[in-house]
Amino acid sequence: MKPFDPNRPATPPWLAIGLLAALFTAWLALPSEPVMSGETRSMTLAGEPFRVELANDPASRRQGLMDRPTLPANRGMLFIYPDEAPRSFWMKDVRFPLDLLFLDRHWRLVHLVEHVPPCTGNDCPGYGRGVDAQYVLELPAGTAARLGLENGSRLEPPASLPARK
What we know:
- The protein is an alpha+beta fold.
- It has a domain at about 40-145: Protein of unknown function DUF192 (Jelly Rolls).
- The chain has three helices and six strands; from the N terminus they run αββαββββα.
- The protein has helices at about 15-30, 60-65, 145; strands spanning about 40-45, 50-55, 75-90, 100-105, 110-115, 125-140.
- It has a six-stranded mixed sheet.
- It is elongated and about 80 Å long.
């Protein structure tokens, strides 16, 4: 074993620089926004491009946006149902406020609920009770007002939606 030499660096400088460069490169590769976990489509709302995640089956509709840290601007979740029927939504374990847009089979906005607060408890209120809708679009709170969307507005559906389940 060699004796300790206080004048000798413990780690060669090139190794430390290489390690820092590798860490910096890994940091740059991290996604800058939360990744959408399901199938997505592009959608245009009032002339603005949006990317929406599809909730097209019972499991994805049940999960919704629960336990996500945030929903970035110009992102959303589109709930697709096989038919037009009364829909009700709650915000259990959703961590950020949302706008809820209830749409009929012709993509006409039939009910708008703005700035729905998050709910982390078990006693969360329902929204949209008794409203017949085939689609429900969740957007970051304030988006509907910013885009001038209101009851009666007609939205353009995303291209090539999957079969309804």
